[in-house]
Amino acid sequence: MKTGLLLFAHGARDPNWSLPFRAVLESVRNRAPDVCVELCFLEFMSPNLIDAGHALAAAGCTQIDVVPLFLGTGGHVRKDLPLQVEQLRAAHPEAVWTVRASIGEAPVVIDAIAQAALAGVSGNVLFKPGLVDSA
User: Fold this and answer.
1) Cα–chain-centroid distance for residue 18?
2) Which contacts (CB < 8 Å, 24+ apart) does range 33-36 have?
3) Which residue of 19, 41, 93, 95 pairs with 45 in a disulfide if CB–CB is 3.0 to 4.6 A?
4) Cβ atoms 106, 45 nearer than 8 A
5) In terms of Cα–Cα distance, which of 34, 45, 36 is closest to 10?
6) Each residue of 2-27: pLDDT tens digit?
7) CB–CB of 10/41 below 8 Å?
8) 49-68: per-residue pLDDT in tens?
């Protein structure tokens, strides 16, 4: 059984928005080189979920997990995502398509966000200040 992983993000018009998601993609690929991994988007960016799912099926993946890279499970994850996964199931019945919980609901992610948020308070800066003005 060949395993595939679809990392599903919202997408944005600004290409820089996707940089953290692309870093996640590369990290996953480095940690699990035997898993076929694709990053895909709901809108504004390519590939979309359908195209990326077709690519994994064409690569011979028979177990494909879809991981929503969303902080919470809102309308896109509850409504849009299941409709698209159903299209993939119909097109590729040989594959098992599993939609996982939104990544932001994982306890380890909640803990990492809390740790990063508190990093500046304790004087330990984990990342550079953003480009957004604070005024």
Assistant:
1) 10
2) 34/3, 35/3, 35/4, 35/5, 36/2, 36/3, 36/4, 36/5, 36/61
3) 41
4) no
5) 45
6) 999 999 999 999 999 999 999 999 99
7) yes
8) 999 999 999 999 999 999 99
Residues in the chain, total: 135
Q: How many CA atoms lie within 13 A of 31 on its CB side?
A: 8
Tokens read off for 50? 């359908």
How far apart (Å, rounded) are the C-alpha atoms in residues 84 and 100? 14
Q: What sign has the CA pseudo-torsion 81, 3, 25, 105?
A: positive
Which residue carries 């508190």 as its tokens? 118
In the chain, the amino acid numbered 97 is W
